[in-house]
Specification:
The protein is α+β, with helices and mostly antiparallel strands. 21% of the residues lie in helices and 20% in strands. An eight-stranded antiparallel beta sheet has the order 1-2-3-4-8-7-6-5.
């Protein structure tokens, strides 16, 4: 069959009518679709081709997505107004001198009874050589009276001031201040009820005795700074601490 087709083509090329017909067909190709003669038409199926196998239809292409609309421009948030601090009241003027610390309140002065304790004579004895008249007045108040003090030659060498006993243990309290130094040198107390026998039981030790006016006796302890004046009945008139 192939050789037959080649022979027909050769006859057409060399035949005069064939060339004219070919020319006419070529001219008509410009205005009408080209038609092949039967002898030129293929009688056998083409050697290759596209075969569509049965099965699921090919997926359709998704239509192109519409272009995204441009994002709307968000207007910037208005700036937060700055917080204005409340005005502070003006600072008070600084004084020329500022104390570094506040002085604590002065403690209340203890009552004389608490400061003196139970034995005013022993307390005042510890002040011998230290107290002045002003010190005694601060603790005991103003004296009730005063009298001169004499030495062995009957010369005035000091002043004795009489005070009330804040502890109420003694009838009276006397303080002897030296006229030269002004310091306390002797303390006299007057017990309401005390005998010489009781005094010996309280204060033991050797004593030296001497007679005094009006039948009185004067006892002086040699192991302690204590003198005792006793009346004729044996009652203690005064105790003297020096």
């Amino acid at each position: 069959m192939t050789w037959f087709r080649l022979m027909c083509l050769a006859a057409l090329v060399f035949h005069p009518a064939g060339s004219g017909a070919a020319a006419g067909r070529a001219a008509s190709d410009n205005t009408s679709p080209r038609k092949l003669p039967p002898v030129m038409r293929p009688t056998e199926p083409p050697d290759s081709g596209q075969i569509v196998l049965p099965g699921a239809p090919a997926p359709k292409k998704a239509p192109p997505a519409a272009p995204a609309a441009p994002a709307a421009k968000v207007a910037p948030a208005p700036a937060k107004p700055e917080e204005v601090a409340a005005p502070h009241p003006p600072a008070p003027p600084v004084p020329a001198t500022v104390p570094t610390a506040v002085a604590a309140a002065a403690p209340a002065k203890p009552a004389p009874r608490l400061e003196l304790g139970n034995e005013v004579a022993a307390y005042c004895q510890r002040q011998i050589g230290h107290w002045k008249q002003s010190d005694a007045r601060k603790l005991l108040g103003e004296p009730k009276r005063h009298r001169p003090a004499y030495d062995e030659n009957k010369a005035v060498n000091g002043t004795i001031y009489a005070f009330n006993d804040p502890t109420s243990k003694y009838k009276e309290l006397e303080l002897d201040f030296d006229s030269k130094s002004g310091s306390l040198r002797t303390v006299f107390v007057y017990p309401p009820r005390l005998t010489w026998q009781q005094c010996r039981r309280v204060w033991t030790g050797p004593v030296a005795a001497a007679d005094a006016a009006q039948g009185r006796r004067f006892y002086s302890y040699t192991n302690r700074r204590l003198d005792v004046l006793v009346d004729s009945t044996g009652t203690v008139i005064s105790l003297g601490w020096y």
